[in-house]
Amino acid sequence: MKTLRVLVLGLVLGLPATAAVVRYPAPASEALSTDYEVWAEGQKVAVYTARVLDPPFAGKQWDFGGPYAFANFDLAGPATVRVKSSRLLRNAVVRPASAGVRVTVEDDHTLTLRLAGPCKFSLEPDGKKGPLLLFANPIETRPPKPNEPGVVWFGPGLHKPGRIDLTNGQTLYLAGGAVVKGAVVARGSNIRILGRGILDGSDYEWRKGPYGVTLGIQGSNVLVEGITIRGSSHWTIVPRGSRHVTIRGVKLCNARVQNDDGINPCNSQDVHISDCFIRSDDDCVALKGLDLRLPQPNVERVTVENCVLWCDRARIFLLGHESRAPFMRAITLRNLDIIHFSMTPFLFEPGEDMRLEDVTVENVRIHGEGQAEFIRLKPVVNQYMVKKVPGYIRNVRFRNIELTGRPGPYRVQLAGADPEHDVRGVSFENVTILGEKLGRDSARLSIGNYVHDVQFGPPSR
Q: How many CB atoms lie within 10 A of CB 268?
């Protein structure tokens, strides 16, 4: 693999004596960004493009100014990144602020960024229009070799395999600098999908890819780590009827079509999603049922943490639609940055008699742009449901949540459906909206019928 490793010696802008950067060449056929140039520790980094809303969706309400750019490189320790652009950068904003990136303006078209270590963030000269997404990854350890047994290996360059099928014990490796056009179907146990390459769906029309989703998982002990997925033609990563699935350090550069949900665990248990960056047009993370015929249909023990989330049109978290599962429970959403959203970011709407219970949302930072709604907990019946009855909501905790940004309604709505399908046991602890702590008398809060045991502040003993 033609990986370029650069060791920079000496103290540079307060960095330690030795900093390591790994960058990857782009395929010769790849049309790189003409808006941005990036150097990491003085070494040129390939800057790719991703499209926003192909026809027939282009030019609609949710179209945010055409293509955007993204770049991957690996870091061991702090580093300095230089960005040049034909666009005006003097007032560019880094989101999320928690990435800890220090910005120095060299001139109207050049910035110096000081990174404390691996991080993922959006550099925005003009809000959502044409940003640069920068993914400073940790350096890979012990990547597989192409001749190892059970390894499906794609090296640097352009590849067009279409559908890639994986089974028990196999590893799919996308090397840095690889652009692999197709979809992956992982069925079985002990499967790994790794690397710094790109799995690319952007050549396929809406809902016409080589498989129903870009990366489908049906099995146990499956790891997806480090890759970038660009331009999904439908849902992106879907564990279905699966157990012990880990999705770590994955970057999703979507928003090319509608229905490009980021990660949708369906009828799955023990799913851990961490250190990911998701930009999508549709829901970033949607937990769903879909199939009661599976041996274990529940959605249980799902954790999403340490992620950066951006949804152009729909929800950040959707829990409950298409709820063919008796239970959706033991869900943890923590240490998250929501940098852009449109519809209700936390929409919990169980139906089909499903019990949505034991959900914790904590340590979340949200950038608001004046949206109407923030949180909705409401059992419903909608067009996606087969059994036309609502569900139940039990024991949901919101703790240490901060929404900042532009003024707006940011409503919080709790409502049951009927005396049986109600909402019980909801708590809000240190939830602030534009500096105002959410309390029982907050004008933003609406508590409807069939809602019981709502608490504010620390839990009572």
A: 29
pLDDT at res. 82: 98
Residues of the chain with pLDDT under 70: 1-19, 62-64, 459-461
DSSP 263: B
Kindly tell me the burial class for residue 238, based on how many C-beta atoms sit within 10 Å of its own C-beta (0-12, 13-18, 19 or more).
buried
CATH class of 151-456: mainly beta
CA distance 340 to 322: 25
What distance in Å separates the CA atoms of residue 209 and residue 253, rounded to the nearest whole number?
16
pTM listed for this prediction: 0.95
Q: Tens of pLDDT along 166-221? A: 999 999 999 999 999 999 999 999 999 999 999 999 999 999 999 999 999 999 99
| Per-residue pLDDT, 461 | 54
Q: Is the dihedral of CA 310, 184, 193, 292 positive or negative?
A: positive
Quick check: 401 and 362 in contact, CB under 8 A? yes
Burial 177-213 (b: 16+ CB within 10 A, else e): bbbbbbbbbbebebbbbbbbbbbbbbebebeebbbeb
Domains of the chain by residue range: 21-138, 151-456
CA nearest neighbour of 192 among 241, 142, 233: 142
Residues 94 and 114: their CA atoms lie apart, in Å, by: 12
- pLDDT at position 61: 74
Please tell me the CATH code under which domain 21-138 is placed.
2.60.350.10
